[in-house]
From TrEMBL:
It comes from the Bacteria. InterPro entries: CdaR-like_regulators, CdaR_GGDEF, Diacid_rec, PucR_C-HTH_dom, PucR_C-HTH_sf. This is CdaR family transcriptional regulator. It comes from Marinomonas pollencensis. Gene3D superfamilies: PucR C-terminal helix-turn-helix domain. Residues 315-370 form the PucR C-terminal helix-turn-helix domain. Residues 147-263 form the CdaR GGDEF-like domain.
Length: 375
């Protein structure tokens, strides 16, 4: 049964007193005044309200009768109902003969406010339940139990729909996530949206936008459309990372993890960008978990030697340019604004320090992997 509280009672009082030039009281099902235009009466028991509740009828109190009842002034008191249950009473203070015409009108107004508040609370409860279910879906230890299937059914979530995870992050001062949630849910696209932190949302999006296959390029265009829809003040502070698609419900946690790792890698390597796709950072993401392992230490050992020896960062910068230009000496020298002989000298020094042949694919790739793992 719906329970009136002080906030709703005061909302009823303020809205009804804005229409009528009379004091209005709202009492709960125990006859206690929760809201009133006369603040001193809040918290006191209204005996006429108890009569209205007990007999489930309008109780009129004239001046002579009010003196014999506790906490009562002349007026009328009308029971409030919600789904057939008495939840309280609304009372109007004044001459009964003048107030009779307003009783049912006030009752309808108050009950409509209660219905709206109850609907709002129900929607909020359902949203919290859906958000909690989404957070369960992306957990690595999620299992599809009969209880989970029933829960999904109650929330209207189709567990058969293939989904991929994306993460949206708003930097400090970028605005409210609520605005983003609204844009992600309107128009309806079957997105499952949940807050994972104060500045991050996870979105479990339907993966097959063409109805047939997973197409990262199509998803990329959809992200571009979203960023264009955002108000400029919000868009400037927003970053979106799209994970990889893995089939099955058990794949959602993997998809979520790749989205998180893609966001981390994207911000590290291209902080000026807004959109990061797993397909564009797959190597960095796959290597990200190796930094603290013995495999990662071995793969990055040569690059670490270079990093330690290169105090001014000149050789690291040279190596990065050499990789970027795929070993083209002239293009590399031009980008660094140095002579080719200077470039050869630096490359020879890199080879001596790392003991790798950077003119071979294996040697250069080893340093590239070491660079990615170290970053």
């Amino acid at each position: 049964m719906y329970v009136l509280d002080h906030a709703i009672a005061m909302q009823i009082v303020s809205r009804t007193m804005a229409i009528l030039d009379y004091n209005v009281n709202v009492m709960n099902s125990q006859g206690t005044i929760l809201g009133s235009g006369d603040k001193q009466r809040i918290g006191t028991v209204h005996e006429a309200a108890l009569l209205a509740i007990t007999h489930n009828r309008i109780v009129e109190i004239k001046q002579d009768a009010s003196d014999s009842l506790m906490g009562v002034k002349p007026g009328i008191n009308v029971p409030l109902h919600h789904h057939g249950n008495i939840i309280g009473v609304i009372g109007i203070t004044g001459d009964v003969s003048e107030l009779k015409q307003y009783g049912l009108l006030l009752k309808m107004t108050a009950e409509m406010i209660v219905e709206q508040a109850n609907l709002h609370e129900t929607i909020q409860w359902e949203n919290r339940q859906k958000e909690e279910f989404i957070l369960q879906l992306i957990r690595a230890d999620f299992t599809l139990s009969p209880q989970a299937v029933a829960w999904a059914g109650q929330l209207g979530i189709d567990l058969e729909t293939p989904r991929v995870a994306a993460i949206i992050e708003i930097s400090d001062g970028g605005g409210s996530l609520k605005e983003l949630v609204h844009l992600l849910q309107h128009p309806e696209r079957d997105n499952l949206v949940a807050m994972i932190s104060l500045n991050q949302l996870v979105i479990l999006k339907p993966a097959f936008l063409d109805g047939l296959n997973w197409d990262p390029e199509l998803e990329s265009r959809r992200i571009d459309q979203l960023l264009k829809r955002l108000p400029k003040a919000l868009s400037e502070h927003t970053k979106v990372a799209l994970g990889h698609y893995f089939p099955g419900l058990e794949g959602l946690s993997h998809s979520y993890q790749t989205a998180q790792d893609t966001l981390i890698s994207g911000k590290k390597f291209n902080p000026e960008e807004q959109k990061y796709l797993f397909e564009e950072y797959s190597l960095q993401v796959l290597l990200s978990g190796m930094k603290q392992t013995w495999r990662g230490e071995v793969l990055s050992s040569a690059y670490q030697k270079l990093l330690i020896a290169d105090k001014k960062g000149i050789l690291i910068k040279t190596l990065s340019a050499y990789m970027k230009h795929f070993g083209d000496l002239q293009s590399c020298a031009n980008s660094l604004h140095i002579h080719r002989n200077t470039l050869r000298y630096r490359l020879d020094k890199i080879q001596r320090l790392t003991q790798l042949n950077i003119h071979s694919l294996d040697g250069l790739f080893s340093l590239y992997l070491g660079q990615l793992i170290t970053k």
